[in-house]
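thread: overnight batch results

M.L. [08:02]
morning all. the overnight job finished for the chain we discussed friday. pasting input first so we're all looking at the same thing
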Amino acid sequence: MYKVRVVLDTKEDVIRTLVFNEAKSLEDLHFDIAKSFGFNGQEMASFYRTDEDWNQGEEIPLFNMAEAGEEVSMATCILKETLPTINDKLIYVYDFLQMWTFYVEIVEQSNEDVAESKIILTVGEIPDEAPEKEFKADISDDLDDLDDDFPSFENIDDFDF
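M.L. [08:03]
and the structure it wrote out:
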């Protein structure tokens, strides 16, 4: 049994704690998280591996997008293999148009058998709209120097193909 704490990235505390069978997939966790926050689970979503400081890493998408079918997806990731120890974390993004962002953390493990997942703690109400996200990029201040490295042209006809 895994006890999973899910925190919505908002100013107000919006938290759900779920009890979950460790043999279930991340796809099952996706649907349970969506349901616990009042969503239908029909929007695109992804989990992202993260470190202790919540820095976003490798994506685990809802569906396998690879042509060969060998890429990782939520259906192929088992909870106990993806998050093997207490305090392991994931970032969960639901609905890429709204960008609902959640922090998911394993807070307890036991050998207890759980047939169905269930919500054991609910704190706060989900807001009517997803919080605004601020996207930042590390852009060098040396962008003005790039013009010196590339020849300028006024017309595509100036190039000999």
